[in-house]
Amino acid sequence: MATALALAAPIRLPVRRSAHTPAGRPVGVSRTTPLAALGSPSHSVSGVCASNGVGIPSAPSSIRGRTRARTGTGTGGGGAGVAGGDSAPARAVLARDDVSDDGVAWDESARYTWRVGGANDIPIVHLRDVYRGTEPLVARQSPFCTKSSCPIPGLPTGARTPLNLNRTFVSELDRVLLKSMTFGSPDSLSAECDFECDVNGERLCNTCEFEPEFCIRAGPRAEIYFKPSEVHAAIVNCGGLCPGINDVIRSLVNTLEVGYDVKKISGIRFGFSGFFKDGVENLPLSRKTVRNIQSQGGSIVGCGRGGGDVNQIVNAIERQGMNMIFVIGGNGSHAGANAISQECAKRGLKVSVVGIPKTIDNDILHIDKTFGFDTAVEEAQKAIKAAATEARSALNGIGVVKLMGRQSGFIAMNAALANGDTDVCLIPEVDFAMEGPNGAVAHIKNLVASQGYAVVVLAEGAGQEYVMGAGGTDAGGNPVLGDIGPWFCKRLKAEMSCDVKYIDPTYMVRGCKANAQDSIYCAILGQNAVHGAFAGFTGISVGMVNTHAVFLPIERLIEKERLVDPDGKNWHRLLTATGQPDFVS
């Protein structure tokens, strides 16, 4: 249907150049287009930010020997992208230039101003918008410094070279495209379509335009809004265990202490209730206490579901003088973090709340993946391999592996695709029939008859219509599921003569330490969470979008769970690898 609509309707696309992107100009913005929707402080192509007051050089603008000059002027200009949209007007427009980009350079003396919070920016909240305390909210130069920077002789200790400043700080102008691919269909998420027709023929019928969205790029800012000596940071881990939690905690603590010289860091024990629960003391954290914790699984601050009494939590935050809250958790925990941020804003507190997405199911919207997912897939393959070995070694052997995935089947799909031994993979997003000539049982019978064995991978949320769960939800708000694994094995035994070997590696996968790839990812997330808090953002989460670290409003992440697309390429790749049919009744 979508294809038919796309063919029938003329697609009117705005002209957007992207073949060449000189420094200081974002992908997707024409040279003849006003500079809107992308940025904050006044930016000079030649070298100095006019509004930050610290003389931070911009990136070099000369690219590949381009020689022709551009003109434009502008001064002043707002802060970082914030909630509310147009927080600062555009003050400069690129000069019209119809000549090809070939051989073009930006004039080193020209200045350009970028507009804050345009229509295509995903806005995030800054403390400037919500803080109502008696002490002024003052921007100050960041002390953050890379190890490669070095003192300049004759200047105070810690002074950095212009080159290192340029490499260290992220410009407030930097943006990351939320979706790197847009489908040429009216139902594309990043398209706006008008299905009305102008009777006078002045407007095309059924016209669509791509509407890209841009995320705020994460990283250290030149200006911060907290004195490091006054910071009391709190780190809380909510929900269940996941590979990499200790890596994130270690990265948070090291960045706070080494990067910003923060002296007071508290670990909140056993989830949100640890803020206020009697008999639960905070765990003092420092670079020394977190040393080597990444080499073990679990969480040094524990974990816990529920306990999200927002008023009690914020009362405890005020009472203890905490002003940076880092919440490690999934959708439910992020909803709690968002509520805490909103309550702090309601009270006018100078508190920055930042989330770090954690779910082994990989079901968080928009971001490339969640930490621990790669490790979970790697560990799950070991269980599938063991099940395949058992099945091949038995007469009419069937190996059944149940993996995590309440509402999304990413672990099951990816582990089955990576392993190569799987014959059948069942996930929550795709309904399947057990009985009948086209059902799962008939297919598995045929597999055993033809090859002597079969290997089945189940996501825990698959086939819930066949099993009776306890009903209701757990302390974290998750539905209580029926156990599909034993039920599935019982049905196979009832329908055929077979030797079933059942493996449930859930807790083995959850409790293991992160692999190298996840450990690096955790370090990136922890560092950028601290940078976002010091920059004054709140109600945000950090993640990778199209391989770039970004800040996203929590509200966008928790709109719904991310699910496997049954019409998507990854699921079709899995079907091709397993050869399984659609199990229809």
Automatic annotation (TrEMBL):
Entry annotated with the keyword Repeat: no
GO cellular component terms, A-Z: cytoplasm
One function term, GO molecular function aspect: ATP binding
Reaction catalysis annotation: beta-D-fructose 6-phosphate + ATP = beta-D-fructose 1,6-bisphosphate + ADP + H(+)
Domain Phosphofructokinase as annotated: residue spans: 233-531
Residue ranges of coiled coil: none
Highest classification ranks of the organism: Eukaryota, Viridiplantae, Chlorophyta, Mamiellophyceae, Mamiellales
Listed Gly residues bias regions: 73-84
Name of one Pfam family that matches: PFK
Protein name: Phosphofructokinase domain-containing protein
Free-text function comment from the UniProt entry: Catalyzes the phosphorylation of D-fructose 6-phosphate to fructose 1,6-bisphosphate by ATP, the first committing step of glycolysis.
Region of interest: Disordered: 58-87
